[in-house]
Amino acid sequence: ASIAEERKAPSFPIRELTYWLDGDKKVTELKEQIMLELERDPLWRVSDHPNLTLAETRERAMKKIRRLADQATSRPLEETMVRMSIISVVDPGFWTRFGVHFGLFFGALQGQASPAQLAYWMEKGAFTMQGVTGCFGMTELGHGSNVAGLETIATFDPNTDEFIVHSPTITATKWWIGGAAHTATHCAVYAQLLVGGKRYGTKTFVVQLRDTQTFELMPGVNIGDLGKKMGRDQIDNGWIRFTHVRIPRSHMLMKHTKVMRSGEVIEPPLAQLAYGALIQGRVSMVGDSANVAKRALTIATRYASVRRQFSDGTPGALESKLIDYPIHQHRLLPLMAQTFAMIFAAREMNTSYMQLMSQLNELGDSKGAAVDAAIKNLKETHATSAGLKAFCTWMCLNIIDQCRQSLGGHGYSAYTGLSQAYSDFAVHCTWEGDNTILTLQCGRYLVATALDALKGQPLPENLAYLKDAIKSGMVLETKPFSGKSAAEVSSLAALKAAWSSVAANAIVNAVRDFEAGVAKGLSKDNAYEFSSASRLHAARMHTYTYLLHRFVAQVEQSPAALRPILTLLAQLFGAHSAVQHSGEFLQAGFYSGAQIEALKVFVNDACAQIRKDAVPLTDAFDYSDYIINSPLGRYDGDVYEKYFELVTSLNPQKPVPYFDSLIRPLLERTNESQPGPELEIDQE
């Protein structure tokens, strides 16, 4: 009854919002079909995950891979993508193990192999997992984010037309390689290309790790298991060392750099084009952040609508729902707004990425303006995806933990769904680029773009807010906002202008710090390091601005029936984020202290309004109870009965196995100390 009353009068059509979030009705129906298929498949049981051993977890994941490999390669790509987006929430560890082959290994082939090489590996079974299972060998024990500094070497031997792949040091050992410990037959190895004594940078080589018939390690290949991790134990992460392993020259992926039989090295005119494919992982993690956050918020919001705690003291009065307390609304509802911001940013980021890849694939041997435009788009997409990957994964990890804490003591249970979600998601802040490093890359792009604009280069659309600063030679004079009321300071137009002002101010300061470094005689790279703190801050402010602008753009495109609630959520995102960073707005001179207080009033009012739609909003996420996989987040609100049933069914009462060996001896021990000499303290 408690949760049913939450659904009596939503301010918007729930089903229409679901269709809008998913893209259209057909996608929603496909999602629901896939969720039901998974729920009814015994192999996809998820309720017992907390009780599985490491070995059991990995074995079950491998059974799922066997099942899904045929589906993934025989069904339409669009269906597979939807299926994998659902699986990433249901079983993120399996999603990663499966994605190591199809996303990373095969993705490396697609992005780095020539057409003939790709056809060769397809024929060998690289796409269908029939004869080849792959892993991705980039990270080393001593190097992660600095790909250019990798130590593994691939030396060309002109006498045999082979490369010799070698790990010269302990720190050159490939580390954290998903699939290496148990699964992979081949590896896309990132190594320094060495030809005729000259280094040509990091390139990609396909190295066979195991005999595909016996599964014995190939000569010169050593592999070990990295064992238990913080989360995602479904993945068999391992280490790999190569000792003078010979591979055919054709196993270097040569879509870009080519090594001829003679030893001649032909490098592409624009080497950075090779890194376009590496953006895909970052783009996907923006969407994954939104999807995981949706699940966490569904659990926390539904539980808050059922859980009652304290009353006003009136005899016989019901205790109040958690969701009715203003402070609990402040805990959850700004997170709801952040989640919608991520959903819409992921949608636009994916569109931008697909347009970029289409542009790169159509280049061919083009030169001039077409290449220049592609490079500009690549840099912008790389920087935007870097900033979004960092801040969306940080944002999602915080959402998971805040939702977990909002469950009280029950949030600490492995059976309520969020403790493991936190452990599983935390790695998103590290892999595919450490978040701090990616943020600095985004900040470097912002500084470089501003400096180019000062020289007359056009600004990209998402940096249009820098126009005034560029016109004034990076002397930014912000015009204070004139509105005073909560309604005025929190309008979408005001918030967009406010965030644009703050982001512009942060970029101007980062440019000044960079130029100060140059003025001190520092090299360009060292000047960027000198300005690293301000670059990181500029990237933070720019990314929040991007998220708000994309949110508003989606609101403007939304159906009329959804626009009021989406507008309110966009306002809450912009206003709450501004209050959290109020010092920046005061420093930029856009808002005054009184206007910040007006923003706080709006946040209070917005939380109270959205509270009425809190449960319907999570219903619009359209996750079945199977996907939610938490008794506290059930659609019907029957949390206590189902929680008790789950805990007791997975932990049946049994005799204590160590009673006789440990507990009984503890309880029955006697004090058999030897008497010592008496101390006569009263004798003189």
Give short descriptive properties of this protein.
globular; 6-stranded mixed beta sheet; single chain; 3-stranded antiparallel beta sheet; alpha+beta; 11 strands; 684 residues
Strand content: 5-15%
- Stretches with pLDDT under 50, minimum 5 residues: none
End-to-end C-alpha gap: 81 Å
The whole-number mean of residue pLDDT values reads 93
Helix content: 40-55%
Q: Write down how many β-strands occur, each being a DSSP E stretch of 2 or more residues.
A: 11
Q: Please state the oligomeric state of the protein chains shown.
A: single chain
Main sheet properties? 6 strands, mixed
Question: From the helix content, strand content and strand pairing, which structural class follows?
Answer: alpha+beta
Number of helices: 23
Cα Rg: 29 Å
Question: Looking at the structure, what is the overall shape?
Answer: globular
Task: Provide structural commentary.
- 44% of the residues are buried.
- The mean pLDDT is 93.
- Helix 14 packs across helix 15.
- This protein is α+β, with helices and mostly antiparallel strands and 684 residues long.
- The protein is globular and about 95 Å long.
Summarize the SSE layout with pairings.
Elements: H1 14-22, H2 25-40, H3 54-74, H4 77-90, H5 92-112, H6 115-123, E1 134-137, E2 153-157, E3 162-166, E4 174-177, E5 186-195, E6 198-208, E7 221-225, E8 238-242, E9 245-248, E10 258-259, E11 265-266, H7 279-304, H8 326-361, H9 369-406, H10 419-425, H11 435-454, H12 467-471, H13 486-489, H14 492-519, H15 524-530, H16 532-557, H17 563-580, H18 582-588, H19 593-611, H20 614-621, H21 625-628, H22 639-650, H23 659-667
Parallel strand pairs: 1-5, 2-5
Antiparallel strand pairs: 2-3, 3-9, 4-8, 5-6, 7-8, 10-11
Helix pairs in contact: 1-2, 1-20, 2-4, 3-5, 4-5, 4-7, 7-8, 7-9, 7-20, 8-9, 8-16, 8-17, 8-19, 9-10, 9-11, 9-16, 11-14, 11-16, 14-15, 14-16, 14-17, 14-18, 16-17, 17-18, 17-19
